[in-house]
């Protein structure tokens, strides 16, 4: 008998070509009755009432092959279910791992952004004053920052050669407004240089590049 728990999910079964000779030996009436018995058995999982002894005998010969094939089908379905469960569990574990790493990274960045300046380790936002000339040297040695600030300058690569002089002007500006002791780390220096350039430095460069023409009388 076929397991009833998987009957409803089964939409097909195997009818072997080697059975053709047996069907050919039966009358059309008996062959039709036999095929109906087979369908009924596969559909319900129970052996139907068979009144004809010939049909009953042939079905009994076919039944082991039918059961064996259906067992293979059921096993394959079960394997697919298990594989699906394992895949879902793996995706869940991977998602949890990624989320955990992102959370750890975010917490680490927000709690402690450690910078190195003059061989010292300092925390982002710590109340410590740095030598402005040393900040200039560190900024000029930061290739990634220089590339970024060149793109932001709107002057392109030509800004590289201008950068040392612009940093001197930036430092002079910071000193002139009495803020030289307020820069506590490199990140703050980068941020404030960008602000100075956008609001002061770029305009000065543009003014310097203007040519004054005298219109003759």
From TrEMBL:
Region of interest: Disordered: 81-102
InterPro entries noted in UniProt: DUF6291, DUF7833
Domain DUF7833 stretches: 137-198
Domain DUF6291 residue range list: 12-90
Classification via Pfam families: DUF6291, DUF7833
Domain of life where this protein originates: Bacteria
Protein name as annotated: Uncharacterized protein
Taxonomy of the source species: Bacteria, Pseudomonadati, Bacteroidota, Bacteroidia, Bacteroidales
């Amino acid at each position: 008998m076929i397991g009833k728990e998987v009957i409803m999910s089964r939409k097909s079964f195997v009818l072997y070509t080697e059975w053709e000779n047996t069907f050919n030996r039966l009358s059309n009436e008996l062959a039709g009755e036999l095929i109906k018995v087979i369908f009924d058995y596969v559909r319900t999982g129970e052996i139907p009432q068979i009144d004809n002894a010939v049909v009953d005998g042939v079905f009994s010969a076919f039944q082991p092959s039918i059961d064996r094939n259906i067992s293979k089908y059921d096993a394959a379905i079960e394997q697919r279910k298990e594989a699906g469960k394992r895949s879902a569990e793996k995706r869940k574990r991977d998602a949890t791992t990624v989320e955990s790493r992102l959370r750890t990274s975010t917490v680490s960045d927000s709690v402690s952004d450690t910078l190195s300046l003059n061989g010292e380790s300092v925390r982002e936002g710590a109340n410590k004053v740095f030598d402005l000339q040393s900040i200039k040297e560190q900024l000029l040695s930061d290739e990634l920052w220089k590339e970024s600030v060149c793109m932001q300058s709107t002057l392109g690569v030509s800004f590289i050669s201008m950068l040392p002089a612009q940093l001197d002007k930036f430092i002079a500006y910071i000193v002139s407004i009495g803020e030289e002791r307020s820069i506590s780390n490199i990140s703050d220096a980068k941020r404030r240089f960008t602000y100075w350039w956008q609001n002061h430095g770029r305009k000065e460069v543009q003014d310097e590049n203007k040519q004054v023409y005298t219109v003759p009388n």
